[in-house]
Amino acid sequence: MIQNVIDVVESQTTSQSLFSKQTYYTIKGSDKDGNFEVHRRFKDFVALRNLLAQQWPGCYVPSLPGKKLFNGNDPKTIHDRKKFLNAFCQKLSLLPHLFQTDAVSQVFLRSKDDKIYTKLESIKSQSTQDLLQKYQTTFADILDTAIDASTLKEIDNFADQVRNYSIKLKSIKKMIKDSVDSGKKYNSCLEEIIKTRLINFENSFVTQFINKDASLLIFNRIKQELADTYQENQVFRLNNIEILLDLIRLESKDCKIVLRQISDRINLENKVKTLENKIIELEKELDKLNQGKVSFKNLIKQKSPEDAKKQVEQEISESVKEIKLLQDLIILINKILALKERNRYENEKNTQFKEIMEILQQMELDSIKLESSYWGFILNETNQLIAQTQNQSQIEDQINTE
User: Coiled-coil stretches, from where to where (predicted)?
Assistant: First the structure.
């Protein structure tokens, strides 16, 4: 089986006019149809996700970062979007029923159209019958699995669990964000101390006690080497806890998606109720027609009683058929939520958290090694300076003794 590979590798902002800029994100990868490389705007991603959510009710569709009315092309927004757009693509590649649709594999990943979002937005909605047939084919493995009232209760309990989880995530998110902000302030202060304050301190105070011999100053002596090492390795600029913040942000969005998946079922149930009420009204109208009563609407349209009866009977028949299709679809969506989506969500959270912890652990270890190497360089230079000072002192003592 060919594995889907997809990454958002870079971004490029172009100026359309003095007040208009557009940012394109480069997507590269390969699938069963071969290699692809395209440039897409954020609104293209949004149009794709909206289409997938509409075409796959009750199914998980990865989240996207929120829209911004202004500053959508500033460096920070672009940096954040690139991370989350890449996460969107990575998750999409693990969902074959979504990734292999024409909307994704052909339009989004291969079309050379400049305005992909308009092409995606123009794709027609599927009928309930088409949607049901698609689900029956895609999820054939659970068609014969029976579910009962207790299973539906589990879905409702799962929704409550996700809601509570979402509330807790908000406080955790604030705590981690505060930690990230504190880390940035610490790094900024440390950079100022290392690159400026210590050098100025030596020049202003220490130099007074060494007869203004610049060779005996530590940071002044190695300031260029320090600056080069600082810039090259970004020592003390690393803020690894930020990866946890990204995880929490994705988690929060996923909570909303799960709740929308469950609400998709509720929306379909409401459609059934609406159609049932419509049938009741149509049956009342049919009774009046059978009694020889003609409605004001039919008088205006100049319909004969027989034509009016046929139309009402046809509407009732179509509504009954639509209700049956919707009910079958709801049953299948309940199976998807109970047997697939709930397990996928729980397993993904567990796996994702472990992967993030492993990455964070390695990043912290690398940071410690980097900082240790950096300070080791300073310590080595300091020891050499101390040794040099001691040697000079011994030489001077020897000369004085002689």
Answer: 258-329
